[in-house]
Amino acid sequence: MLSETVFRSGDLPAQDRLAALDELWANDTHPMRVVSDAAEHFRATVRMLDLGAVHVVRLAVSPCEVLRTPKLIRRADPELCSVIVPLSGTLTVSQAGHDIALGAGELALYDSSQPFRIRFTAMDGATRLVRAH
């Protein structure tokens, strides 16, 4: 079964953008949290495509962090291995005491059963990526 979810922060007032994406991902089958020190300037466009066995996310986002904590893992763990590939901008994936910085075209794997942090750092809001699991 094919399903698609699209989120565009530009459709919301600036003060609601970060909270809306955080709520969307906190209630996902693979719950995560989104935090930012600059919530008033937060921008994101997300396209999530569920293809059954594969879930693909295309994301363009301003600087922020995406967190998967032990509490979120206990709440729901679909035991996924995800591939993340920045298309532009930079990001850092931190898991199991390791940090890997990625630029455009590089990839990393991470495990939904372990806490992780992904930091999006492009100052111009141009971090774009594809994630699949």
Order of helices and strands: EHEEEEHEEEEEE
Termini, distance in Å? 16 Å
- Mind summarizing the main beta sheet? 6 strands, antiparallel
β-sheet strand percentage? over 45%
What do these coordinates show?
By secondary structure, the chain is mainly beta. It has helices at about 15-25, 70-75; strands at about 5-10, 35, 45-50, 55-60, 65-70, 80-90, 90-95, 100, 110, 115-120, 125-130. The chain is globular and about 35 Å long. The strands form 2 sheets. A 6-stranded antiparallel β-sheet has the order 1-3-4-11-6-9, covered by helices on one side. It has a 5-stranded antiparallel β-sheet with strand order 2-5-10-7-8. About 25% of the residues are buried. The two termini are about 15 Å apart. Strand 3 (about 45-50) and strand 4 (about 55-60) form a beta hairpin.
